[in-house]
Amino acid sequence: MRIGDLAAAGQVTAKTIRFYEQAGLLPAPPRTAGGYRDYAPEFVNRLAFIRDAQAAGLSLAEIRSVLDLRDSGQAPCGQVTTLIGEHLAEIERRLVELRQTRTLRDLARRAASMDPDTCSEGDICTILTQPRSTH
Fold this sequence. Notes:
Layout: H1 3-10, H2 14-22, H3 42-55, H4 60-71, H5 77-113
């Protein structure tokens, strides 16, 4: 199958296929007598895997490592499980940071509505201090 046919079947561009070859995600295919790349039908599945792995958040280097394992005859399930765990942990860290950003926005709103002249000497900073109920 020629590169245009593979691109159409894999829902990517020919430029993407050439990039994936250079990046080591697709092995270089044999060439026809006319010098055209001649891809086997299995390349369509490989392109679908690359697309799915990218959608899951894996980097090209991570995808390449998974493909390298598979190409060496090993099942990459353990490595994929580890990668997914690492990505989930990173997302959890980012969620914590985003929650802190929300807190900072609330503090910024409070700061914008504060009048420093209304602070008492007993208060250190009413922007950072949570309002306390007095009962």
